[in-house]
Amino acid sequence: MKSKSPSISKTSKTVSILCLIGLLIVASFFRPNPGYGKIYVDINQPSLDRINIAIPDFLNSSQQSQCQELSTALPAVLTNDLDLSGYFMPMDKGAFLEQNNEAFSIGDIRFRDWSVIGADLLVKAKYNCVGRSLDVEVGLYDVFQGRQIMRKRFLGKVSNHRQLMHRIGNEIIYLITGYKGMFLSKLAFVGTATGYKEIYVCDYDGHNVQTITTDKSIALFPEWSPKGDEIIYNSYKEDGAILYLKDLRSGLVRKVSARKGLNTGGTWMSDGKRLALTLSYRGNADIYAIDLKGNILKQLVTHWGIDVSPTFSPDGGKIAYVSDRSGSPQIFVRDLLKETEERITFEGEYNTSPAWSVRNRIVFSQLKDNSMDIYTIDPDGGNLRRLTQDQGKNEDPCWSPDGRYLAFTSNRDGRYHLYIMNANGQNQRKITSFEGEQTSPSWSPFRSE
Which of 380, 379, 375, 417 is nearest to 397 (CA)? Predict the structure, then answer.
């Protein structure tokens, strides 16, 4: 057999190389988020390495150097946001080599100076104050590839500069993970700063506290409506534990359920038109569904034991709750269509405060060996996971709307304050240090603006 001529072999090799390049180009269109390459974060992984991000002081381009204090205040808010997310590791400013804040475009930034200190991402920003208005232009850069990922202007008010930075943080989270950020969400909670138990609302990071009740009594168990415009809670300002609803837009408060005995532990159904709660007007404490006028629609759980703390599955077809029918408080799951139920916790002396996430996990608090800690479990009772340990008493867990974070209360520093952590238990951070104690958090829906 005759060998191929050199020209034919060369042509064949060229064609092969071109085909390979063509395949690589085609394949690049099917890679997940190809634009982010090295720095894209798959937040569905059970554990992940945090991305090193450098956030130097912002450049003040205002006339007459107005709002000079924002040059450090604005990046401080963004730094805290990205740190609390658990996906980023903001870098110490003392390690920064490049000190030129005016270097904003790709041609001016010395990426080598940022690469040497280990930065994966770089945020560069400048702002302009005009009267009460604030204009911030932000650039996000991939240090490894020396390229720009985002450059965008954000407009707001100087007085709401924290909210403006939360918007920027959400944008960065979405670009790097593909999911909405939590930075514009809020928490409702019970606080004792006045000497009474009242309901308060704060930003997700503990700032911007607002008073919701001034009953000068005992207010408990706040929970946001699915739209985030109403909060239900219990108050003892009159006789007994009455369930109230407050419209956050109008400020109006009205009774929803004021039957004799318990009217506690209210939770919203996904349609925002119905609630589940524990009533004891017939004697035993059982779980019922009611409308927002307080009319009983259906008895959801019937048993001689005490049944409390209902929480619905994502599809609304099941309900998890606490019952003492087995001798100690344990968590049960009831299928509302099949009318069957099963016990899913068998450890600990006391299991309470279940909450069902949109990602189909149930979180709860368990007292075991004189330690109160937070656990998650599958709805069938499998895959039990302990999230807190050897850090005081940890109680009242609630999910973020996307099921990727948890808020809870802990006395690990002596008094009860609010904490947040990732759903896997990592990155536990205290977010409130107000006067008194803060307990019973409820997470609002996420907002984009």
Answer: 375
